[in-house]
């Protein structure tokens, strides 16, 4: 391990030295460009574009382009990127991750690589975690880009397709990660080329890259349609779940967040639902609903995992504390929670298109990111996304003091200590940021502060609309702010007048998150740009993380130290080490889980690419799709004929071939069994293809205009492909949910999923071929009907 750490540090030093030298070259051009007039500096943009078109690479143009953007920022924004910001910009241009501490000016850093890459004319996407930040950054930085002669677009969820298309066609597009993903999926569902909004995915810079590519990695983007489903079964299984007793009827595994019925629980279920065997294959739907009811009642916590607003269950992002509007838990869990909470159960949906962020962002030709916290996940960024994490030095030394954790036996004693610390700091006017992991904790602390008559503001999933303004004021004298995790991320906390003298911003964490990176984000709220401040975490043995991973060892340590009593407190490096050890275990588990998700999703990715490529070819065609259709007709006929013409010709049963011909190709009057007899397999295929050729010619004559024939061909192909693809997505989801059971049979579930998934895909293609053949051949063309 020490050798690995040494290699890591030396690699960073080498990168920093190289980046610093390249930044010096940018600096030398900057001195030259200071003497240019505004018009001369603005003329650099078309000049650099022309040089790129004439064969120079973006790497060749980097020193000059960065210097143009830097000088432009000085004149337009009144901000000059520091040497370290130029280094960060180079990291982004090279398709890596720049780890820059809070307050180091990531937004300004991005302007240089954004400008450089926009010169290619292929489009640059700047991706943020919410629309507020997209619009804010586009407005602020857009002044610079417009001044330099580049166009800027903002892609938001409330825009029309025309507005979205304009935004994507701009040189620089600001958008959220979700909107990019949904637009990609929608583009692959359109029937007409003109309805697409995106260009090919070229270069993206992701702000808060760890939030999107790590925390959200397992979150699939799903476009759904309505599916048939009954709310009655959710209500029945919920009512049953509420009769169960913990330990007697079911067991909860907090580490894996699973619930399983005991033998007594199974017997209770069989009696309740009047069944002989709960796990009989006939009861699959019931057991699925029951599993979700158990998870809803005994794992999913209100005001932590979800909130209920306006009689609707809304998901809370466990990392940011924000409400994830429009998102629903999958596999019936959302409906199970709705039954638990007694709100209206929404109809289950059927997936029409889906993709994970992992596979979405790997489609970009080049991807980069910036964040204050990424080094702990460096291996994952390298392995999954082929991006290195480079830590950029701060412009000024970090003055913040990170104090050791303090541990209390109970939640009550911990919160009492937190309130006492807040009272002490508030009395001297020092601003305080209280970080919580759950919404319910933030509300509890708010009540306690109200009792102490300490004015404060709460920032959590329930009022995130105000988060930017709340965070902006959090550094003022006497301010007390309670924030769920990293709500308000992306907005700096600047210290108000007289705060430096009072010690800067005090950050108090009321619980450790399961990820060290999230804890580091909270700490990083204090001490921006060389400001003073401190951070400290208050823990208890009853915290989630401690109960799941660390409490037994720590309890034995406390016993040895003879620490007892509810008010006992311990400050020890051993506690911090134990917590970090637990966090590393969770991070390792989560990383393995994300890798496993990616392995499974890669099966769907390959299939998705085949289908989407086919769709694009169909939609892009502007003359005729005969070249697509004829091979489909031939494959279908060959598949049917070859199936029934094997072995001794005397024993062939050609009736199924005749049934196929009558059902899919011709009318019964045009063919009989005798027409197929006394022919070999190839001759039968050739005979049937004559009907196909004739039918195709007849339709061409009936549809006078080639454009009408093309439209007819497109409608047939897209209608059949889309129908089968949505059914296939659903079938693959069901396979994925059940495949884990193969492990009990000593089979590798992933290998089985790949094998069966491929087989199902091949069957789907055969079904598409058959239905396209039948729909095309049997369709009647009627003239003079309004379209």
Automatic annotation (TrEMBL):
What Pfam families does UniProt report for this protein, alphabetically?
A: P-loop_SecA, SecA_DEAD, SecA_PP_bind, SecA_SW
**SMART domains for this protein:** SecA_DEAD, SecA_PP_bind
Instruction: Provide the catalytic activity annotation.
Output: ATP + H2O + cellular proteinSide 1 = ADP + phosphate + cellular proteinSide 2
The protein's topology relative to the membrane is: Peripheral membrane protein
Q: Which positions does UniProt annotate for ATP binding?
A: 85, 103-107, 492
Where would you say this protein principally sits, based on its record?
membrane
Q: Where in the cell is it found?
A: Cell membrane; Cytoplasm
Is ATP-binding included in the keywords of this UniProt record? Answer: yes
What protein is this chain from?
Protein translocase subunit SecA
Q: Identify the species of origin.
A: Philodulcilactobacillus myokoensis
């Amino acid at each position: 391990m020490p050798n690995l750490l040494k290699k890591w540090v030396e690699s960073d030093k080498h990168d920093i030295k190289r980046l610093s030298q390249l930044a010096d070259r940018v600096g030398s051009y900057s001195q030259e460009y200071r003497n240019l007039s505004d018009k001369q500096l603005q003329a650099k943009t078309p000049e650099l574009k022309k040089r790129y078109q004439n064969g120079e690479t973006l790497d060749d143009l980097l020193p000059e382009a960065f210097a143009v953007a830097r000088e432009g920022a000085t004149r337009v924004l009144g901000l000059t990127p520091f040497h370290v910001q130029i280094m960060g910009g180079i990291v982004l241009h090279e398709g890596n991750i720049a780890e820059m501490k809070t307050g180091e000016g990531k937004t300004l850093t991005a302007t240089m690589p954004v400008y450089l890459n926009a010169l290619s004319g292929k489009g640059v996407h700047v991706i943020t975690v919410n629309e507020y930040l997209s619009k804010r950054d586009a407005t602020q930085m857009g002044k610079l880009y417009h001044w330099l002669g580049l166009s800027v677009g903002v892609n938001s969820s409330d825009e029309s397709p025309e507005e979205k298309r304009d935004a994507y066609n701009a040189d620089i597009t600001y958008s959220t990660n979700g909107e990019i993903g949904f637009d990609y999926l929608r583009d692959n569902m359109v029937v007409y080329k003109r309805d697409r909004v995106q260009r090919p995915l070229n270069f993206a810079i992701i702000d808060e890259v760890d939030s999107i590519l790590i925390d959200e990695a397992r979150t699939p983007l799903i476009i759904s349609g309505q599916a048939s489903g009954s709310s009655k079964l959710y209500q029945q299984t919920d009512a049953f779940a509420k009769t169960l007793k913990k330990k007697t009827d079911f067991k909860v595994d907090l580490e894996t967040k699973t619930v399983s019925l005991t033998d007594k629980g199974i017997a209770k279920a069989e009696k309740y639902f009047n069944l002989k065997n709960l796990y009989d294959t006939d009861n699959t739907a019931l057991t699925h609903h029951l599993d979700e009811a158990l998870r809803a009642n005994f794992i999913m916590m209100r005001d932590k995992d979800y909130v209920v607003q306006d009689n609707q269950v809304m998901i809370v992002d466990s990392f940011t504390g924000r409400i994830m509007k429009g998102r629903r838990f999958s596999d019936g869990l959302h409906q199970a929670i709705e039954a638990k909470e007694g709100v209206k159960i929404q109809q289950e949906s059927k997936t029409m298109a889906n993709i994970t962020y992992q596979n979405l962002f790997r489609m970009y030709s080049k991807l980069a990111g910036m964040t204050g916290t990424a080094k702990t996940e460096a291996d994952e960024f390298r392995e999954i996304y082929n991006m290195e994490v480079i830590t950029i030095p701060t412009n000024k030394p970090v003055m913040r003091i990170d104090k050791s954790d303090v541990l209390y036996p109970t939640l009550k004693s911990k919160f009492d200590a937190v309130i006492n610390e807040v009272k002490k700091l508030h009395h001297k006017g020092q601003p305080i940021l209280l970080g919580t992991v759950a919404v319910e904790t933030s509300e509890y602390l708010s009540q306690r502060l109200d009792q102490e008559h300490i004015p404060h503001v709460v920032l959590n999933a329930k009022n995130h609309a105000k988060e930017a303004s709340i965070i902006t004021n959090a550094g003022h004298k006497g301010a007390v702010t309670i924030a769920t995790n990293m709500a308000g991320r992306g907005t700096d906390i600047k210290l108000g007048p007289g705060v430096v003298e009072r010690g800067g911003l005090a950050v108090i964490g009321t619980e450790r998150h399961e990820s060290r990176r999230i804890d580091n984000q909270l700490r990083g709220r204090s001490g921006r740009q060389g400001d003073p401040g401190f951070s400290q975490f208050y823990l208890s043995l009853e915290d989630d993380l401690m109960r799941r991973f660390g409490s037994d060892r720590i309890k034995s340590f406390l016993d040895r130290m003879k620490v007892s009593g509810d008010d006992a407190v311990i400050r020890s490096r051993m506690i911090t080490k134990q917590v970090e050890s637990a966090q590393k275990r969770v991070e390792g588990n989560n990383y393995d889980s994300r890798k496993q998700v990616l392995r499974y999703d890669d099966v769907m990715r390959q299939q998705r690419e085949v289908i989407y490529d086919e769709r694009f070819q169909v939609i892009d065609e502007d003359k005729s799709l005969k070249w697509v259709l004829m091979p489909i007709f031939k494959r279908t006929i060959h598949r049917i004929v070859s199936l029934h013409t094997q072995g001794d010709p005397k024993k062939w049963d050609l009736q199924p071939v005749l049934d196929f011909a009558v059902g899919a190709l011709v009318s019964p009057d045009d063919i009989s069994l005798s027409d197929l007899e006394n022919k070999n397999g190839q001759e039968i295929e050739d005979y049937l293809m004559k009907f196909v050729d004739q039918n195709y010619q007849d339709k061409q004559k009936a549809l006078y205009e080639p454009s009408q024939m093309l439209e007819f061909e497109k409608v047939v192909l897209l209608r059949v492909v889309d129908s089968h693809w949505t059914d296939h997505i659903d079938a693959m989801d069901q396979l994925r949910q059940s495949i884990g059971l193969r492990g009990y049979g000593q089979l590798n579930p992933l290998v089985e999923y790949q094998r069966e998934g491929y087989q199902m895909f091949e069957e789907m293609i055969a079904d598409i071929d058959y239905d396209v053949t039948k729909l095309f051949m049997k369709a009647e063309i009627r003239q003079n009907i309004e379209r």
